[in-house]
Amino acid sequence: MIGAGISGLTTVQHLLDRAIAFDCFEAGSDIGGVWRYDNDNGRSPAYASLHIDTSKDRFSFADLAMPAHWPVYLHHSQVLQYLERYAQVFGLRDHITFRTEVLNAAPMRGGWQVTVRDLVTGESASREYRAVIVASGHHWDPNLPAHEGPFAGETMHAQTYRVPERFIGKDVVVVGAGNTGADIASELSWHANSVTLSTRSGAHVLPRYIFGRPLDSYSTRLSSQLPIGVQRTVYRTLLFLARGSQASYGFPTPHGPILSQHPTVSADLLGLVKDGQVGVRGDISRFTHDEVVFVDGRRVRADVIIYATGYRISFPFLDEKVMAPQANKVELYRQVVPVDTPGLYFIGLIQPVGALPPLAEQQARWVAQLLSGATLPSEGEMRADIVTDVFERSQRYQDTRRHTIQVDYWPYLDSMRTLCDKNDEASSTP
User: Fold this and answer.
1) 286: burial class by Cβ within 10 Å (0-12, 13-18, 19+)?
2) 205 exposed, middle or buried (CB, 10 Å; 0-12, 13-18, 19+)?
3) Is 116:103 a contact under the CB 8 Å cutoff?
4) Residue 420 is inside which H or E element, if any?
5) Distance CA 36, CA 16 (A)
6) CB 296 within 8 A of CB 306
7) What would the mean pLDDT of 326-336 be, rounded to a whole number?
8) DSSP symbols for 171-197
9) Are strands 344-346 and 304-307 parallel, antiparallel or unpaired?
10) Between the CA atoms of 51, 56, 58 and 63, what dihedral angle is there, to the nearest 10 degrees?
11) Residue 351 — left, alpha, or beta (φ > 0 → left; ψ -120 to 50 → alpha)?
């Protein structure tokens, strides 16, 4: 198994629960993945002020509650504390091999050959396994767009952004209006000389709270069963009553309806745009020596460009013949199993509208069942399910690389839980 972040930890717990022998390799020196600030595995994009954008109760694993006195939206350090407690309660840390990088995982007759490298000694070794579980996440390989022009300033990806102080007095352009772009632009507006947010298509910006309740409390199992048109009407009404129209703040409204793209959750962005602390422009056309030129011809001076443009889904330890995502498209049965590659499983390779941990928990539970003898449907049934899933996603979400692994929290959670419950019932039947 690869990775000891959220997805890896819950997988370790379920493998232990079923007494399945395994090795878990983590490139860093401790657990936590993206939630360990400045993780020495080099892959954490966490910045100093990062908070989760879902409520703590929705974020927690089923078998370990969050501390009641913690705030609704946790700081990244609290998420790490929670994961460390989870590892301690279930005795997970002793079953993880740290500072070990997986260099290659190759299918062979009856299993897999995995080559790992000890990052302390530099020594490599190959071992054979019956299966490989990938739980290494997908927020680590920066997607950097290319623009023409001889820009002389600094360019960076949001993955390496940490604190705002070093941008004091500078003119900054933040590219991308997702959650990270909104956070960074809002934070820098109090430190930089100027902040301009470049967005190609706008975004639906949602507050953390509506009428004093956390945003995701309005998403329930019952509401998720309503037609998508009704769900959109409810959210539009709630947002209008709570804050008025988004356009009245001067922030562009995307062409697609609400819930057709991953929402941007920000308590501050719209007010900062309204107050003129954050400027908003469209897509970038090109650079000059010290300016950014936008497609509408307008220009802003820039010392730094921060790309909050997401990540590529990639697996450098897998040969392209095994898995080679194009434009972030990965076709997996139940978002876990590649049909053509027996013994390969992915945990946490989803982008939920909602919290990841409960979904990864059910994925891990299912994979542990499969490794204990539960069976998959036929190849034809799995392919048909994948086609249906891709079609339904295309009907709900915009066709962009940002939404290729998008899932809705309640429908996905319930479908995976039902599947796992049926497997448990079948295994207990004489």
Assistant:
1) middle
2) buried
3) yes
4) helix 409-428
5) 24
6) no
7) 94
8) EEEEE--SHHHHHHHHHHTTTSSEEEE
9) unpaired
10) 130
11) beta
